[in-house]
Amino acid sequence: MQDKEPYILDNDLTHIVDQALCRHLADSLDRLQKGMAMLQGNGTILQSNKFARQLFANCSQVKLSAGKLEFTDTAHQREFQNAQSLATATIDLDVQQEMIIRRDEAFLRPIHIDIRLVDTDYDDLFFLFITDLEIQQQINVRKAATLFRLTDKEAIVLEQLSGIKTEPQIAADLDITKNTLRTHRKNIYAKLNISSRVELAMLNSALV
After folding, report:
1. Is 87 exposed, middle or buried (0-12, 13-18, 19+ CB in 10 A)?
2. Sign of the torsion angle spanned by Cα atoms 138, 143, 146, 151
3. Secondary structure of the chain: what % helix, strand, coil (to 5)?
4. Res 7: pLDDT
5. Does pLDDT of 12 surpass 60?
6. What is the Cα–Cα distance from 8 to 190, expressed in whole angstroms?
7. Where is 71: in which H helix or E strand?
């Protein structure tokens, strides 16, 4: 089924924000594989980009009910509501509230959400900027593989080393010996000019 365009549930609100700017922002974030949504204080989604809609549909920690964004975990729901309250109470609109949605699935990185109050006279209107840290990590690994000219096999090993699995687990998952994994790791570290997984994590962060 073809994905719908970013939608507005209440046409009376279209004058509040620059629609062309919102479309440009949505398209730009889609290209970066990041999500954007505009919500009312009660959670009603007014606009969202394609990435956000796909994430909402596929994330078990999120549920959509009558066009409203809700969280299946009550602790996440309370955290979201608290973040909205803090954003409303903050005078400085450049200060965003943050929340982390941890996944139940093993080894999957969480989802990070920035919550910002929209600068309008309308009460309780928020932008959500959403980063799936699992996807972001994959993007960073691809960047590193290209920048440092890693082989296809080294790129696969790099992605595994960038995660939280132990080296024996990585070797087993890739169906290679521990010695072969160590050889790949040594070659990767030499190309990236690093010496540990901590430095690798720092490098990945710098590639955002």
Report:
1. buried
2. negative
3. 50, 20, 35
4. 45
5. no
6. 51
7. strand 68-71
